[in-house]
Amino acid sequence: MRLRGKQVKPLQTLEITIIDDAKLKKAITAAALGSAMEWFDFGVYGFVAYALWQIFFPGATPG
């Protein structure tokens, strides 16, 4: 097999990785939960930062 002028050898049996579906589902779930938690944390930080700005600097404009 050739790819843009380079010779590509076929895959051997030992070069193939078999993925366990249960572990893949667990990894995807963990990544999704971690991302959701990170966005929640970002939202809470933004809300609290704005609230504290209004409390401590009522007459000032941010920026």
UniProtKB/TrEMBL annotation:
Domain of life: Bacteria
Keywords linked to the UniProt accession: Cell membrane, Membrane, Symport, Transport
Organism name: Plesiomonas shigelloides (Aeromonas shigelloides)
Protein name as catalogued: Proline/betaine transporter
Membrane topology designation: Multi-pass membrane protein
Coiled-coil stretches: none
Primary localisation category: membrane
Molecular functions per Gene Ontology: symporter activity
Family matches, as InterPro entries: H+-coupled_symporters
Compartments, record wording: Cell membrane
One GO CC annotation: plasma membrane
